[in-house]
Write a structure and sequence with these properties.
single chain, alpha+beta, Aminopeptidase, Alpha-Beta Plaits, 2 domains, 8-stranded mixed sheet, 10 helices, 25% strand
């Protein structure tokens, strides 16, 4: 896959330059303004190192400039492993704040370190930068009209999963925390990740490669936080799931091979379409008859292709799909039963098959102890009515690699505002209200301040 964005578009846009300059000016001056009142004592580990009013004021100072950056990123989306312009915007912003910046991690990823004035643990924050091959249909004044090449076809490109919000939130969080580095007891690692939606065919990328290339090496964090937009939550609300939160994802590709013949003489053929249809129906019994009713899973055949002419029984049929589970043992059972069903059904029909499984993305498991410790921080920031525990979702996220490396917590960030109702994630009508940007910054900055204030225990 090659990005068709003209070379001239790789330079940082004027609006981004202006926003970056505004944020850079804010950070140093913010230090004095976020200090506690004279005589105030830092709270204990169970309290907050920064009071809510001071945090809100610090966020308000960077909100407008950060929203401008968000609009710029939304107008100039880039597909996975092609986030060249985006990473330039991110790196320039972070350098302007005085952070240690490393670029080219996992091709286009950026890692930056903010070292506090006092010794302490390190904590990581992660945002994903890539967009999707979706043609935007929102009508927003800053909507994307970008085009690129994806799987050999020209496609529209859109931030249909809110990664522009994630990236701008993390940039705003960096500005807030850089303005109070003299009060931080420890370090913050900012991870801007490419290819969360998956790298192009034939390439590697994403969180696993960032870790392999040292994203958590110096310093090594003792915890990692992230957030993800949720179009079903209002702005100012957050949700979380202790333990297994998002499913693993494994793809599969199968080919059922029969014998071609005239459509009027099925007796001379081995029909791969009928055989594949029987396989698809039988696969649904895995969930209903082979797994515990308390072990959630999804098995979806998303592609079934065969034939070129209505009066010809073709030689083969191709199936592709996805498996979602929350437990590796359940995934193993699903794969074993799939192979048995393909083997038995094709043998009965006189056909043959091949079945291949793609690399499995692990389930995202929020560390329960870390979650329990940090939920009071969210309640302090947003109020108890705006923080809710929710059941696991069947989406997948390669933040799971980071959360498998160190204790992790991913939050859902409300993005539904008073404007147009958003479509679902990955749809051309997905809309995130600008108010989600400062709301996300408040949450992420507070999590860092409270985590480091408690010594990273």
């Amino acid at each position: 896959m090659t990005d068709t964005m003209p070379a001239g578009r790789i330079t940082v846009a004027g609006v981004a330059v202006a926003a970056l300059a505004a944020l850079a000016l804010l950070a140093p001056g913010a230090r004095a303004q976020v200090r506690p009142p004279a005589g105030a004592q830092p709270r204990a580990a169970t309290g907050a190192a920064l009071d809510t009013a001071a945090l809100r004021a610090a966020v308000e100072r960077v909100a407008a400039a950060t929203i401008e950056i968000r609009h710029d990123l939304h107008q100039h989306p880039e597909l996975g492993n092609r986030e060249v312009r985006t990473s330039l915007v991110v790196a320039e912003r972070l350098r302007a704040l005085g952070l240690e910046v490393r670029t080219g991690v996992a091709r286009t990823g950026v890692v930056a370190v903010l070292r506090g004035a006092r010794p302490g643990p390190a904590v990581a924050l992660r945002a994903d930068m890539d967009a999707l091959p979706v043609t935007e249909a929102t009508g927003l004044p800053y909507r994307s009209t970008a085009r690129a090449t994806y799987s050999g076809q020209e496609v529209g490109v859109m931030h249909a999963c809110g990664h522009d919000v994630h990236t701008s939130v993390l940039l705003g969080t960096a500005a807030v925390l850089a303005g109070m580095r003299d009060r931080l007891a420890g370090s913050v690692v900012f991870v801007f990740q490419p290819a969360e939606e998956g790298p192009p065919a034939g390439e590697d990328g994403g969180a696993e490669v960032m870790l392999a290339e040292g994203a958590f090496r110096d310093p090594r964090p003792s915890a990692v936080f992230a957030l993800h937009t949720d179009p079903e939550l209002p702005v100012g609300a957050y949700s979380y799931t202790p333990g297994p939160a998002l499913a693993s994802a494994a793809s599969f590709t199968a080919v059922v091979r029969g014998r071609q013949a005239h459509g009027a003489r099925p007796d001379l053929a081995v029909d791969p379409i009928v055989t594949a249809a029987q396989v698809v129906l039988a696969l649904q019994t895995i969930r209903s008859r082979n797994l515990s009713p308390f072990a959630p899973s999804v098995l979806t055949v998303g592609i079934l292709r065969a034939g070129e002419r209505a009066n010809i029984i073709p030689a083969e049929a191709r199936l592709e799909g996805t498996i979602r589970t929350y437990d590796s043992a359940v995934e193993d059972t699903v794969k074993r039963r799939m192979r048995e069903i393909f083997e038995g059904t094709t043998r009965a029909a006189g056909a043959a098959f091949t079945l291949e499984f793609g690399r499995s993305l692990p389930a995202l498991v929020n560390d329960r102890a870390l979650t329990a410790r940090m939920v009071p921080t969210l309640v302090r920031v947003a109020g108890e009515a705006n923080v809710r525990e929710v059941p696991p979702k069947s989406f997948s996220e390669d933040f799971s690699y980071f959360a498998n490396e160190v204790p992790g917590l991913m939050l859902w960030l409300g993005v539904q505002g008073p404007g147009p109702v958003s479509g679902p994630l990955h749809s051309p009508t997905f809309v995130a209200d600008d108010g989600a940007v400062p709301a996300g910054i408040r949450a992420m900055a507070a999590l860092v301040v409270d985590y480091l204030g408690g010594g990273g225990r």
